[in-house]
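Dear colleague,

Thank you for sharing your sequence with our group. We've completed the structure prediction you requested, and as agreed, I am returning the results in plain text so they can be pasted directly into your records. Please verify that the sequence below matches your submission; if there's any discrepancy, let me know and we will rerun it promptly.
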Amino acid sequence: MTETTEKAETTETTGRAGTQPGAAGRAYRWVDARAPRIALVAAALYAAVGLAYSLVLGDKIRYYDEEVYVGLARRLVAGEGYTLDGVSPTAYRPPGYPFLLAAVDALGGGIVAMRLVGVAALAGAALLAYRLGERVHSRVAGALAAVLVAFYPLLVFTAGTLYPQVPALFLLLLVIWLGLRAVELPAGWPRRAAAAGAGLAGGLLTLAVPTFAVSVLAVAGWLALRRESRPAARRVVPLLLIATAVLPGAWCVRNALQLHAFVPVSTNNGINLVLGNSEGVTAGGGRVGDIERYEREAAAHVLSEVEQDRFYQEAGRRWIREHPGEAAVLYAEKVANNFSFRNELATSGQRSPVQDMVSAVSYYPLLALFALRLLLARRWKLTGLEKLLVALVLGNVLLLAVFYTRLRFRVPLDGLMLVTSAAMLAELLTGHRPGSQGVTGAPSV
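Please find the predicted structure tokens below.
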């Protein structure tokens, strides 16, 4: 989309909103006039809050997974390789996030500096959400998306932890944004740089959260099929896919040399499958599930890491084959659990009623806006980019339910959902009946 087109669409949008009386119309006009500044202020304000929050947390590691990620990163920096025990090479945890932490640690940063990876990622995600919201609907939707992403409680909390989900959100938004830029830029090095950047971001995303490899392929497919970008996509998409394969390909070579097996990313797919598909688990249990029988059997066979992964994979598949009805019900329950506001915990005392309330009050209104947008899709057609965002959200919900579902795993999906929710909220602020005379002049991508 050219700058001229953007200005024309912005003028059309502002004009329509400007004809509406009342508080909603005034709010829309006010936000539209200041949209880029609102997005920048939201990202900067969150960055300041995130920095303060990281300083308050300090060097304290609160969760087991955080300890594992930090340990992997520090052993890398110490020259011990990618290992859990300092001796044996491993691929049990996806390597993308520990490598990011190792880069920070190698520069002399401590735990607080590592937390800032998530803070920087969320601030960047807010700015990218502005750009995507602008394309989906209007500058107002972009500003609302930036604010929602920057201050959505679950995102803010997760960004302060040493988990890969918020960096994964940033990388996924970056793949979409750079992919769009690549097909819109004129032929030459800027187009190639954008396509390569999208691919490298997709490769790092795959190494950080492997299930998002499917999303990267979906973005590439969408770019290839998108009518407006089809001619440029013939050159962009192959380069994007090649660049995506670079980092995972290098990791596969490392695994082949050190583990003597083909391991695409990690060796924890099997354990995750059993945790979501066996007789001792529930829809929201995850690691709370009782899989002691399988663990004892695996230990009795004295299996290598790769062999253990294969053992658990077969155990999970076997349970599904032998209990198809139970497996189908459990899968449906896991899909529904993806939309829960809290996790099932091993100890009831670990749950905070205040935390649960904040989670529910912040999540369900935004989910309702997302659902309303889908209900209005026949009257107010989804743009191409909206279709992609909706497909990524719903597709990943179905994919996560193959294994097991936790609130943390849903974090990147909430970030995508917020862009569409912001578009619905912006449409309501126009003062028109949604899909009738509202803001339909936004860029269709």
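Summary note from our side: Residues 1-19, 437-445 have pLDDT under 50 and may be disordered.

Kind regards,
the structure core
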